[in-house]
Write a structure and sequence with these properties.
The structure is a homodimer of 412-residue chains. By secondary structure, chain A is α/β, with parallel strands linked by helices. Helix content of chain A is 39%, strand content 17%. Chain B binds a DNA duplex (30 and 30 nucleotides) through helix 2 and helix 4.
Chain lengths: 412, 412
Amino acid sequence: MPGVPESKSPTVYDVARQAEVSIATVSRVLRRPDKVAAATRERVMAAVQQLGYVPNASARGLAGRRTGVLGLLIPGHDLPTTSDREDARSATGEVAFIDDRDGSAADPFRNRYFEQLVRGAEAAAWREGYALMVAAGRDMGREVVMHDLAGRVDGLAAVSRTVPDELLRTSIGRTPLVLVAGHSTADGDGADGGGEGADRAEGADVTDGTVDGVGPRGAIGTTADAVRVDNRGGMRALVEHVLTVKPPGPVLYLAGPPDSPDAAGRAAGFRDAIGGDGAGGDGGTGRDGTAWTELLGDFTWQGGHDAVAAHLEQDTPAAVIAANDQSALGALAALREGGVDVPGTCVVTGFDGIDESRWSTPALTTVRQPMLDLGVRAVELLLRRIADPGAPATELLLPVDVLLRHSCGPHR
Amino acid sequence: MPGVPESKSPTVYDVARQAEVSIATVSRVLRRPDKVAAATRERVMAAVQQLGYVPNASARGLAGRRTGVLGLLIPGHDLPTTSDREDARSATGEVAFIDDRDGSAADPFRNRYFEQLVRGAEAAAWREGYALMVAAGRDMGREVVMHDLAGRVDGLAAVSRTVPDELLRTSIGRTPLVLVAGHSTADGDGADGGGEGADRAEGADVTDGTVDGVGPRGAIGTTADAVRVDNRGGMRALVEHVLTVKPPGPVLYLAGPPDSPDAAGRAAGFRDAIGGDGAGGDGGTGRDGTAWTELLGDFTWQGGHDAVAAHLEQDTPAAVIAANDQSALGALAALREGGVDVPGTCVVTGFDGIDESRWSTPALTTVRQPMLDLGVRAVELLLRRIADPGAPATELLLPVDVLLRHSCGPHR
DNA sequence: GCTCTCGATGTAAGCGCATACACTCGTCGG
DNA sequence: CCGACGAGTGTATGCGCTTACATCGAGAGC
């Protein structure tokens, strides 16, 4: 290519020569323009433009001892569909016909909330002058991912349980770390089992280096910051609302599996709201006199359906509070089969905000995790930690969004 | 903190000293282990472990003249909800009650396919030893984003129309670039208006530095690689399928707005499939004798509904092929109102694969863009370009997925 | 008129790593 | 027994930038 200076990218030296200044001045113009005389500044800027100079981030990172990059580790696999469908299809290069009559093929990443997380984190990072690097935790080579990532970033936000705590601790080394409570069905959080008061729902910073090990903060828990979602407070708020709008009559709480931290947090929220006696049992009378019963579910449609159907044999509830959407949808079906009008006779609520909840009949009132916010807060926490590595571990408890829909009747 | 070596991160020098070798050997152990004697290698690895050494990516990038990072630029805004809901909410720290009876609040990023794109790109990048950096194009400071990004990555994949072509060209400079056709409703592609043959649908590489300027490749088009989605081929395949399963009777094509490249590509696909005469008009007889009519829609529910409702006054179609899902859903409603059984009397198809299509009654057969694939291919193309900067611009046309659902009856 | 101060700019020393090249020392063919 | 060879390792340089420090002038203060 004769004549065309297709050469290497220009460097500060090239700019300096062009502008007839030293490289230090070039650097100053770019980093702290106020430290340079206006005339000089303009001369340098002109040279930058003219040469199409783009600062080399590696060099900057090396010299400045910071990369200006934050990492976000989300759950994921190794191109799950690539080796199967994708590659096969692409090889033939033909349109694929997919039988989606059961709705299963619609999306390989159902309820894909991570886009929100990424966007929130990216925006927050950018706002503070950082770039965002994303990586998916994979089954194979996790150490490699982590190791690699750790060397590239100034700090790392990891969706909890994406990689084992153990690995986090060893691979990460000195890299600031923030744990992010992930999608509720994919991990545990909200296991706020202790005796904390209602103020935990206020989203205030809770400084604690000694949380009891439950939840996403295991072994590493005591040394890492974390952003969590307030399952308990969300359920409490939801139930309090339901109590004001439901028809007169008993309340049914459709619990989740006992070993799920999510289920535990939500159950605690329910008890907070219903109040009264029976806090330790499976039923009782709430502080406002409302009778309530707790049924054991397993987070599945069938489980919710069967439990409620069985219960209908003996009693008709005025409200079914389910610990998640799937079981709420099952309950909805059972009520329909039992001829119970929803929301006229009985209101129903779910938890999680899965896509299906929006399209059920009636549409399900549910609770959504603030994924965008999670991303934003995680980054904010991370930046705070980077700024002050010595600060005590902080836990942020984010309030949820309650989505009021038809299944709990007219609102307000 | 006395005693605790909370010092800086260890470097190759520390490892070298610990293992009693030179830094070159340490580097070799990490980069090309086969070049080092087994005993030495183990000694070094032990030191690495012991010190918790993590290579500094900036230094590596500087010395190696490559960052090992690819950039992905997706459309987006500046925390759209942050300054409003998020910040307001977080300030109070309380659970937000959102009236979602109309379904509008369910998700700030409806039909958010970008998670797929990111995952595909990330996985493909990782597979080749690269990390992925994502950035959202924002209204403000685009130059800054681009400039910054350009200095950080070895190559950049940009969803087309995320930033102006102009900016791409100037900011990017020498950085390898691949354009990615974005979500169909957000940008244009498939404007394969030229006289290309059916082979364009085969997903083969199409080498052309001289595409007519339509579509995402504007001024910069002739110099950048691109990955596109085959709207035309997708519609053609879909229509061919419909012709084999529909009841006897005429076909209605519900077109999109004339100025949309998407609409143009899909209309062309329809004509490819239906064949016969009338290729230039708004109706005719297909090559298999099927009568067809084209109605002008505008991609909206109402437009689809009204057009079909009006048409029903004079004729009952055996198939309604809509240029997108929204208008297909409108058509579905009009048919229901008109007492036309779907899919018994008339089959219906959409295009785009929006969430609603899955939950309509009957569920809508539609076409989905292979976002995961798009991400994978974009990265592959990018890597190819990085490897051979001098290669002619390549355009990849990806086949779509047809999601067969109840609205087009029993399949096969 | 001379020193002092301070703003503007230049000089030069790394930042941590990869790698070309030099060097050492067995091994092997002759 | 000697030189060529090659595997294994060390030395030294530079990647492009930031920044502490030195330098230089031009007013300000006396």
